[in-house]
Structures are given as structure tokens and as C-alpha cells.
Design a protein that fits this description.
CATH architecture of the largest domain: 3-Layer(aba) Sandwich
Number of helices: 8
Radius of gyration: 19 Å
Largest sheet: 11 strands, mixed
Strand content: 25-35%
CATH class of the largest domain: Alpha Beta
Distance between the termini: 27 Å
Number of domains: 2
Oligomer: single chain
Order of helices and strands: EEEEEEHEHEHEHHHEHEH
Number of strands: 11
Length: about 325
């Protein structure tokens, strides 16, 4: 692959400090659930690993979530900072993970970005990794729709704060801070960028919009749909319920932003129609299609990564 597996574990002391989240636009223009007032956050940053051949230092970052859930572990945001060794200023990118991944994909993406002089911050979404209690079955996405909606909201606000931390770093060019997500992460990345103008550049990998139209008739949804309809539910009711977490709802807020979409023409998880719907709603930004399935896209990583690097490094 593009990253080296040789690492050194670092034992240097960490750093504690604070940074301030300051909205860059009028929060009143956002739906209330996604508004975030100016406030300061304490953080802790600890050296973790070094990739000697690549000149990359990996650090652990934690800070309190702006949202307090009922699960204590979930109320601390955990992230990994992949920092090029030089002074910069470098572009910065927040990286979000896939639905059921072991986090290796996002760590690989972050490593590759850092190898190409892009500071990358891999942020754990709500109930992912150390944000989930040991042995717990709680997940960000579940049949419990209120919990899912709350978890998506919390993740969006967490990532807005993470973007402010990244922009505050002296080695990062605050004018070139972006966000990238793959699969589930791409939906959250698009939604977060719609609420946070700090993310000047957006990369949506294997994502889309129009969630209900895309998934209501999906084979994997049929068992849930049958029970839902027996209880009097309809497709239109689901659309209304999920509109706040559908990237299509506020897609017009990304018009004029630097957006890159990478899509699979035979995607069996996120239908191509969903990618096209979001692309159209964003006024047709750059999109690159690959003749593959959702999972088969892994074979196209050598082609995708250089496109992503060019997107974030462009002036």
C-alpha cells in the first residue's frame, strides 16, 4: 500500500491546553439541532507513534463533546492526529470512518494524507472505538431512530469542534481545512460541512443523499419496512423523520464550496441514484465514477488517493 507499517511507540509527555470554537457565520441560519455557540474546550494531546521513514508523528487527541449523552464514555471525543514533521503551514483534513470498519481504512487514509504534507485528524464518531463501553451493543446507527438521530447530531457537533481545533494548529493553514468521509462517514462529512463553513473543501467517498428514496426498497431494509408498515408507517413519514440527517436536505449550502465526489457505478450499498441526487443538489461539483461495487472500491484505492490529495492540496 501507500503507507509504511514500521512504527515507533512514543513515550514523550503530552500536552494539555484549551482552544476556542468560534462560529464563522450566523448560527441562526442553521436548524436548531446543529447550532453551536462560541465556547472554549480543554483538550489533551499525547504523542502516540512515529513513522520514521515517512516523517509522520501520530498523536492522540481528546476533548469533551459539546453534547452530553447518557453514556459517559461517549461524551469524550477521541481522535488521532497524523502530523507531518515540518512546520507547514499544511492543509488540514478531518477524516471520518465507514459503518462497520476496524478503523484501518481511515487510519490508512490519514497516513497517506500526512505522507503528502496534509495534516489529518481521524475523529471517532459517536459510539465508535473508545466511545463505546466495553461489551456494549450500543451503536451510532440502530433501529432506535431517536437514539440514531441524537448520535448523528452529536457527531456533527463534535466534528465541527474538531475542525476548529485543527484550524488552530500553527502547522495548519486555517484557510485550507477540509473534511473527508467514506461510506457512512461520507454522509456525516457532507452533513457536517453543510453546517460548518470552516470546511472549505469536502471529499465524499461512496456517499450520496436522498436516504429514504435510496434505501426504502433496499433488500436489507425489507424486514424493518414490513414491521414499520404494519404499524401504520409510510415512506413519506420516514422522509419527514429522517430529513434532518439526510445530506440532501441542506445540500444547497455546499454550492460554491470545493467538493469532490468519488462514486461506484455498481454500488450495491449506496445506489448510484443517491450519489447523483446529491451531486445534482450541490450544483454538480467534480465527481469521479469507478466501475465497481461498494466493497470492490477497495481495489481502486491506488487510483482514488492521488485524486483526493490533489483536491486538498490545490491552492
Amino acid at each position: 500500500m501507500f503507507w509504511l507499517a514500521v512504527t515507533l511507540t512514543l513515550a514523550a509527555p503530552g500536552e494539555t491546553g484549551s482552544f476556542r470554537y468560534q462560529p464563522l457565520a450566523d448560527e441562526a441560519t442553521l436548524p436548531e439541532r446543529y447550532r453551536l455557540e462560541a465556547r472554549s474546550f480543554d483538550y489533551q494531546r499525547k504523542p502516540y507513534r512515529e513513522l520514521p521513514a515517512s516523517g509522520i508523528i501520530i498523536e492522540k487527541l481528546t476533548f469533551p463533546s459539546p453534547v452530553e449523552s447518557s453514556v459517559a464514555q461517549n461524551n469524550t471525543v477521541h481522535a488521532e492526529y497524523y502530523r507531518p514533521r515540518g512546520r507547514g503551514p499544511y492543509p488540514g483534513v478531518v477524516v471520518l470512518d465507514i459503518t462497520a470498519g476496524d478503523q484501518s481504512l481511515s487510519r490508512g487514509i490519514a497516513t497517506f494524507l500526512a505522507q503528502n504534507d496534509i495534516a489529518a485528524l481521524f475523529v471517532q464518531m459517536a459510539y465508535y472505538g473508545p466511545r463505546r463501553p466495553a461489551g456494549s451493543k450500543v451503536r451510532m446507527l440502530s433501529a432506535d431512530i431517536p437514539r440514531t438521530m441524537a448520535a448523528v447530531r452529536q457527531t456533527v457537533l463534535d466534528v465541527r469542534v474538531a475542525g476548529a481545533w485543527l484550524a488552530s494548529r500553527p502547522e495548519v493553514d486555517a484557510r485550507r481545512v477540509g473534511i473527508l468521509g467514506t461510506s457512512l462517514g461520507s454522509f456525516v462529512a457532507a452533513l457536517t460541512a453543510q453546517t460548518e463553513p470552516r470546511f472549505d473543501r469536502v471529499a465524499i467517498l461512496l456517499g450520496g443523499g436522498g436516504l429514504v428514496d435510496a434505501f426504502y426498497d433496499h433488500p436489507q431494509a425489507r424486514p424493518y419496512r414490513g414491521v414499520y408498515e404494519l404499524l401504520g408507517g409510510t415512506k413519506d413519514k420516514v422522509k419527514e423523520l429522517l430529513a434532518p440527517v439526510d445530506p440532501l436536505t441542506m445540500a444547497d449550502r455546499l454550492r460554491g464550496r470545493r467538493v469532490l465526489m468519488l462514486a461506484a457505478s455498481r454500488d450495491e450499498i449506496v445506489p448510484p441514484s443517491a450519489a447523483r441526487a446529491l451531486w445534482e443538489a450541490m450544483a454538480r461539483p467534480k465527481i469521479v465514477w469507478y466501475d465497481t461495487t461498494h466493497y470492490g472500491a477497495a481495489l481502486f484505492i491506488p487510483q482514488m488517493f492521488p485524486v483526493v490529495v490533489e483536491h486538498f492540496r490545490s491552492p
